[in-house]
Specification:
The chain is α+β, with helices and mostly antiparallel strands and 340 residues long. It has a domain of 171 residues: VC0802-like (2-Layer Sandwich). It contains ten helices and 14 strands. The protein has a twelve-stranded antiparallel barrel with strand order 2-4-3-13-14-12-9-11-10-6-7-5, surrounded by five helices. A two-stranded parallel ribbon has the order 1-8. Helix 7 runs antiparallel to helix 8 and helix 9 packs across helix 10. The chain is globular and about 45 Å long.
């Protein structure tokens, strides 16, 4: 099946950002204690965040975005969290976040999104899914080229052309105001807290020269077998020229998934973590206040819940945890956040 010019709901760009990528041997601890908690203490909002625990000889990888003024602080914290000679951090100033809406866990949406970025020869700093969108962090200099290609590969209900899209965008300083902390409830309000059990968490690293286009084709194949992907992220590996992809599928698709990945990526061994669960939460001010991710990570740490992976973009957070730890995680998050 071919997927050309897929209909989607909307498109959004947030400019004026800075991105820090970190490769660490300390798992999620460096992300929580070394970066997210200090950012919250300094009232700095993370506008985008992904993390994937290491394994198979690879370090954990995290990507954290802030507004451009906070980029140096974010980078300094990341550098300070590096505790071994194998750890490293990299700062990318002048970034933007491009988000495509009406994702709905559909692999062909992610596939077409990745293929569009590959066709436009866009270097990605990170990709992450939320409940309703798929977002990529790219250089601000590549934004116009990326938008034009997205209009080639998707059609939008709200815009007919890139020119019409750009004409309706508010000035960058107005968009930036929306990611500066303004709402600081004593207890953070959220709309919902849900769990998705019986998931497999897959990961594989693919040479950068072939990564986006090749993985896009694999995602189209997933769509053909009607296999949704609730969780998805992609981050560059700092220690080698490869992209690390991680995503979740229902455990019922385990055999199909392994056959598909082995056939699409010969010579690359995919890693499967079975018996995991996804936890999803979103809230009214997730893009407008600091401390949300650090609050979640601190709560999971108090409950001794091991974080396997996390993606935070737009107004949503997906956290992947072990199946046996999902109930303690849900319990402490219900006590930590205010639900309707």
């Amino acid at each position: 099946m071919t997927y050309e010019s897929i209909a989607v709901g909307g498109l959004k760009v947030v400019e004026g950002g800075a991105c820090v990528a970190v490769s660490s041997s300390n798992g999620a601890d460096h992300l929580r204690a070394g970066i997210c908690v200090p950012l919250a203490q300094q009232r700095i909002n993370a506008t985008f965040l992904t993390h994937m625990n290491g394994g198979g000889g690879l370090n954990s990888v995290s990507v954290i975005c802030t507004d451009i003024e906070a980029g140096t602080t974010n980078y300094s914290l990341a550098k300070a969290s590096c505790s071994s000679t194998q750890d490293m951090a990299r700062l990318h100033p002048g970034t933007c976040i491009v988000s495509l809406y009406a994702y709905s866990r559909r692999p062909e949406i992610v596939g077409n999104f990745l293929r569009a970025l590959a066709r436009a020869k866009i270097m990605i700093y990170a990709v992450a899914s939320s409940h309703s969108s798929i977002s990529a962090v790219i250089s601000l200099k590549a934004m116009d080229k990326a938008i034009r290609q997205l209009f080639e590969d998707f059609h939008f209900s709200s815009y007919t052309s890139p020119a019409e899209f750009f004409a309706t965008q508010p000035p960058p300083e107005e968009l930036l105001k929306k990611v500066i902390a303004r709402y600081q409830e004593s207890v953070i309000k959220i709309y919902c807290l849900e769990k998705l059990p019986d998931q497999d968490l897959w990961s594989l690293s693919v040479p950068s020269v072939m990564a986006l286009e090749s993985f896009a084709e694999a995602l189209f194949a997933l769509s053909d077998i009607r296999c949704p992907i609730p969780f998805f992220l992609a981050v560059p590996l700092l220690e080698k020229k490869e992209l690390l992809f991680s995503f979740s599928t229902s455990s019922d698709h385990a055999d199909e998934m392994r056959r598909l990945l082995n056939s699409r990526f010969p010579g690359i061994t995919p890693r499967r973590q079975g018996q995991v669960a996804a936890i999803f939460l979103n809230g009214p001010h997730f893009g407008e206040r600091y401390g949300i991710v650090s609050t979640l990570l601190e709560a999971l740490n108090r409950a001794k819940v091991s974080l396997l992976a996390i993606s935070c973009s737009v107004s949503s957070i997906y956290a992947m945890v072990k199946k046996e730890e999902v109930e303690p995680a849900m319990e402490i998050l219900r006590r930590t956040f205010e639900l309707p």
